[in-house]
Write a structure and sequence with these properties.
The complex is a heterodimer of chains A (232) and B (171). Chain A folds into 2 domains: 3-77, Ubiquitin-like (UB roll) (Roll); 94-230, Alpha-Beta Plaits (2-Layer Sandwich). Chain A has 232 residues and is an alpha+beta fold. In chain A, the strands form 3 sheets. Chain A has a 5-stranded mixed sheet, with helices on both faces. Chain A is 25% helix and 16% strand. With 171 residues, chain B is of the alpha/beta class. Chain B has one domain (5-165): NADH:ubiquinone oxidoreductase-like, 20kDa subunit (Rossmann fold, 3-Layer(aba) Sandwich). Chain B has helices at 16-22, 26-34, 64-76, 85-89, 101-109, 145-156, and strands at 5-10, 36-39, 52-58, 61-63, 77-83, 121-126, 136-138. In chain B, the strands form 2 sheets. A 5-stranded parallel sheet of chain B has the order 2-1-3-5-7, sandwiched between helices. The longest helix of chain B is centred in the middle third of the chain and has 13 residues, at 64-76. Chain B is globular, with a radius of gyration of 16 Å. The chains are: A alpha+beta (232), B alpha/beta (171). The interface between A and B is medium-sized, with 28 and 29 residues.
């Protein structure tokens, strides 16, 4: 596999062809904040939190979904990026009904963590406050669309790891919703295996276990994905 | 030198932020050595006074009385602080927003929603900074006493009170 050399934040970094900027940066100890990214899943570039600047490109690019190139010069931390990341998280907070105080994931939530990390002490945009709905028709799990950020981790883990593809996205833009099978109640799904990987992969309180809503664990998705790849 | 004049206000919130302020315990006595408490739900003062230096405002703006009070606070106060998640982003007080005003009143009162004697609900519960200019934000549900203390101590010394990132957290 050919090796490439690029520069990230002034450091010379060696990477494999086809590797993402995010992966190359992490290997060299450079921490880029992420939200929709989950090790073991195919990057979606859905959240725009991992934006970085690449010399010669007019706009920041998502580091999770951009491949390294020879002699690329990458900046992962700048005032412009900090402003963009902050605005992204503020817009996510404004788009649905994220009330940390009454959420099952309070203090374990990736969105809440990022807001704190970026020093977001208030949201400058008006809240949309959509009537987003909750589906608790499944025997064991529930989905609260008020807390969904459309990162598509659930969609990807269900498709790529479990192989069921129960979840997908319906609609456009801010009106998009995670849908189950043919946009039907979760409890009526004929494809859902009840494995719970979507619940574990969800970075917010959108997907939860009904009996134990506050006990989400960090699953080893990379291990799961390797197990699946090597299965004979 | 005149002592700074402090006010605390309770708009649409649960008073939990004021409880957190009270949890400063002995710290309150230290605090009151450095300033005068001129208005507060914890003190029996009927009217919001003039020339207030610092106002800690708990709660969102949910009805016409809250909004009127917010305007008064802004006119008479040098530094307005949003205290807690309801003031900062609506939080629990804004849970009604997706339903709308009519459905909210219907759910609470049935068909007998009062027309008079209680303040009229605004169509939406608003964060304080959507109604008046706000000088500092202290998120948390409630913000713990140490952070309230940190902000007040800075403001009383005339220093900016932008929280360091490790002290900023919703919920």
């Amino acid at each position: 596999m050919p090796r490439l050399t690029l520069t990230i934040d002034g450091h010379s970094v060696s990477a494999r062809q086809g590797e993402s900027i995010l992966s190359a940066a992490r290997r060299s100890g450079i921490d880029i904040p992420t939200l929709c990214n989950l090790e073991g899943l195919i990057p979606a570039g859905a959240c725009r939190v991992c934006l970085v600047e690449v010399s010669g490109r007019p706009r920041p690019v998502p580091s999770c979904a951009t491949s390294v190139e020879q002699d690329m010069v990458v900046t992962t931390d700048s005032e412009r990026l900090a402003a963009a990341r902050r605005m992204t998280v503020e817009l996510l907070l404004a788009e649905r009904n994220h009330s940390c105080a009454v959420c099952v994931m309070n203090r374990h939530c990736r969105l809440q963590d990022l807001a704190a990390r970026f020093g977001i002490d208030h949201v400058r945009f008006s809240f949309i406050s959509p009537l987003a709905g909750v589906d608790v028709s499944h025997e064991r799990f529930g989905i609260d669309h008020n807390r969904c950020i459309l990162c598509r981790r659930c969609v990807r883990v269900c498709d790529e790891i479990e192989g069921a593809h129960t979840w997908d996205v319906g609609g456009r833009g801010a009106a998009s919703r995670i849908i189950c099978d043919l946009a039907q109640p979760w409890g009526t799904s004929t494809t859902c295996t009840g494995c719970g990987k979507c619940v574990q992969a969800c970075p917010t309180g959108a997907l939860f276990e009904k009996d134990a809503p506050a006990t989400k664990r960090a699953v080893d998705l990379q291990g799961l994905s390797e197990w699946r790849r090597n299965r004979k | 030198m005149t002592r700074p004049r402090l006010a605390t206000v309770w708009l649409a919130g649960c008073s939990g932020c004021h409880m957190s302020l009270l949890n400063l315990h002995g710290g309150l006595l230290e605090l009151l050595q450095e300033c005068d408490l001129v208005y507060s739900p914890l003190a029996d003062v009927k009217e919001y006074p003039d020339r207030v230096d610092i106002a800690l405002v708990e709660g969102a703006v949910s009805n016409e009385e809250n909004r009127e009070m917010a305007w008064i606070i802004r006119r008479r106060t040098a530094c307005v602080v949003s205290l807690g998640d309801c003031a900062v982003n609506g939080n629990v007080s804004a849970l009604r927003n997706p339903m709308g005003r009519a459905a909210t009143l219907g759910r609470v009162y049935g068909e007998t929603a009062p027309e008079e004697a209680v303040p009229r609900l605004l169509p939406r519960t608003l964060p304080l900074h959507e109604v008046i200019g706000v000088d500092a934000f202290l998120p948390g549900c409630p913000p713990d006493p140490e952070r309230i203390w940190w902000v007040l101590a800075r403001l009383l010394r005339g220093q900016p009170a932008d929280l360091p990132p490790e002290m900023v957290r919703f919920g």
